């Protein structure tokens, strides 16, 4: 028999559940039991405050909230513990935006278990591979994992057409031509398309995207050659400013004044490049401070724009080197900031900005969205010749027959059975 305490607990749990549903309906993110009780655990069966970690897929965003997740914050040299640049920005209206997809970052994006259907908007700051190297994993991984729509990619022009985003994406699709043609034939061609919007990199404060209450503007950045840009993401009266790769520049300082979240690169001190990358000293100090932003210069930028919260990225965030950057920033900036590392999460509302770490599985499947992929198009030439097809070994194919019979019956696929024709073809050879 249940005692009174248990009954009360279940009623409380029920009420908490109902309250969470009501809050979600109102667009207000529900809080944990402990948070509702002011940060203390009043119920031994209650949940802990969610201030410590973010568990992907468990927190609805409020309508007037922005969530930013660092899915890559490191360097071009690949490392298992930290991917290259990628920031996911989620708006309370449900729209999601990837800012850069640097090498290795898609494993972190995938760990968030967001349906690929909703990961179809990418904004490239520039065309260095540490900012777009995982476009292949998003493109093909999303295709096989259920993205029904084309990828949409925004990016800057260059000094000449061959230095622009359209050129890069066209050549990317040529590079992956075998992949593309074979998947188009077997799966569906639409998710393999890339719709590119290339805009003039020279124009400051230019609107490059405006839909459903989200406005994204671009600004020239100064890096190694013409082309790189910074992006301002604006939603619900709040602004997130993402520098991409840049030296301190007057556009970031002019337009970044008072933004809510300022995400800006901050590089190692030059000696680190000499000690760890074996860069010649003449290169080390140019890398740090001529075409990137040093920690001291990052601090100066933040002291002058005074964001509600600053985020430093583009360094290996590890014990050996992080303090050089931290102390460099503190020479010139005493405001709030994060030393970004992969899977760091910021929730931004008018009221406050929180920093947490996402905790997720290494073995995540994507969660399905609402849409399913269209079928393959008829009439495309089969990329497999009769000669290669004829090498199929019948005995092994027969071994899977009873498993496939059961599957086809379960899904009503009997009228699409490709086996009789295949066995006929095997006999003929
Ligand atoms: Zn770069
Ligand atoms: Zn970079």
Q: What's the architecture of the largest domain, going by CATH? A: 4-Layer Sandwich
Mean pLDDT: 90
* Percent helix range: 25-40%
Rounded to the nearest angstrom, the radius of gyration is 25 Å
Provide a short characterization of the protein structure.
The chain contains 16 helices and 16 strands.
Helix/strand layout:
Layout: H1 4-25, H2 33-36, E1 53-54, E2 66-72, E3 86-91, E4 96-99, H3 105-110, E5 121-123, H4 129-132, H5 135-144, E6 151-156, H6 165-175, H7 177-186, E7 194-199, E8 206-211, E9 214-220, E10 229-235, E11 238-242, H8 250-255, E12 261-265, H9 270-277, H10 281-289, H11 295-305, E13 309-313, H12 319-330, E14 337-339, E15 344-348, E16 353-358, H13 386-389, H14 394-399, H15 401-410, H16 419-428
Parallel strand pairs: 1-16, 4-5, 5-6, 6-7, 11-12, 12-13, 13-14
Antiparallel strand pairs: 2-3, 2-15, 3-4, 8-9, 9-10, 10-11, 15-16
Bound molecules: zinc ion (2 copies).
